[in-house]
Design brief:
Distance between the termini: 34 Å
Strand order of the largest sheet: 1-4
Oligomer: single chain
Order of helices and strands: EEEE
Largest sheet: 2 strands, antiparallel
Low-confidence stretches: none
Structural class: mainly beta
């Protein structure tokens, strides 16, 4: 089950405990990296482009619930 990413107007929320701030995210990424090797052979990634990325699971850090995450609206300044 893939989990949608939060947007500028939404955020994650655990449906079991209500957590809004702490999650362990498992994701798969396909990236292209420009790697520079110095004369000693030490590698350093100088550029990184994410070609694709999928969130595979989200686990709540508070109650350990797996894949019980929903997207909810973020509060706005007017809500305060």
């Amino acid at each position: 089950m893939t989990v949608p990413l939060p947007t500028a107007s939404t955020r994650w929320r655990c449906t079991l405990c209500g957590n809004l701030t702490r999650f362990d995210v498992t994701r798969s990424s396909k990236v292209v990296e420009y790697v520079h090797l110095d004369l000693a052979g030490e590698a350093k990634v100088e550029e990184r482009e994410v070609v694709s990325e999928t969130i595979e699971s989200v686990r709540c850090r508070w109650c350990n619930a797996v894949d019980q995450i929903e997207l909810v609206e973020r509060p706005t300044a007017a809500d305060s």
